[in-house]
Specification:
By secondary structure, the chain is mainly α. It has 9 helices and no strands.
């Protein structure tokens, strides 16, 4: 089988087939899996950490862990759920370690991140300034609340899926989202413009309160 055929074969495999092939020794299967989901994994890492360097390091650690420990994947959830869990946990671990070193100055936050991730086509916000304010507010949330809000309100996971990723009860995710949304609403009250078409809107819908 030549290189082109191998590429086509990998592209045709499901995520579960790719991870099984990787565990079985296929040298290209994990690369295909990462390429398939890299953008979303990066977006989650970036929004969870609020810092480009922390996100890059967290994602690198997570992918290395996933590569080494793919055999522990039981197949009882989507591969993407498992990969997101590894990425979020790696990022949260980095944030907690950083918080435990208060004598080390935190890096200056580049709230636009030098990335177009915050200008995702799904994003209904067309104001760059408003996006920056929202990202600043998101970065100020406690890390557990931020992770829940990012997964449910930004990435669109259900509460149950987010609970599996964060390895906690669904009720805990709901509580963290509710507290995080309340803080975001207070923090962003001064920058909201109810008459503007792209204003920040908070609804009573579960999972749709913060259209970041």
């Amino acid at each position: 089988m030549d290189g082109d055929d191998e590429v086509l074969e990998n592209a045709a495999r499901t995520d579960h087939e790719l991870i099984a092939a990787h565990v079985a020794g296929d040298p290209d299967a994990f690369t295909e899996l990462v390429n398939r989901h890299r953008d979303r994994l990066w977006a989650v890492a970036l929004r969870t950490t609020g810092d480009v360097e922390e996100a890059a390091d967290g994602l690198q650690e997570a992918l290395l862990s996933a590569y080494k420990n793919a055999g522990s994947f039981r197949g009882d959830s989507a591969v993407t759920t498992w990969m997101h869990r590894v990425v979020v946990n790696a990022c949260l671990d980095r944030l907690r370690r950083r918080a435990a070193r208060p004598t080390v100055p935190l890096p200056e936050q580049d709230t636009d991140f030098g990335s177009n991730m915050l200008a995702d086509p799904k994003d209904p916000l067309h104001s760059r300034e408003l996006r920056i304010e929202i990202q600043r507010a998101l970065a100020e949330l406690p890390v557990d609340q931020r992770a829940a809000v990012v997964l449910v309100d930004v990435e669109g996971y259900s509460v149950e899926e987010a609970a599996r990723i964060l390895d906690c009860p669904s009720g805990t995710v709901k509580s963290r989202c509710a507290r995080g949304r309340a803080k975001l609403a207070t923090r962003l009250a001064g920058v909201r413009n109810p008459s503007a078409e792209d204003s920040v809107r908070y609804s009573s819908n579960e999972g749709g309160d913060v259209p970041l």
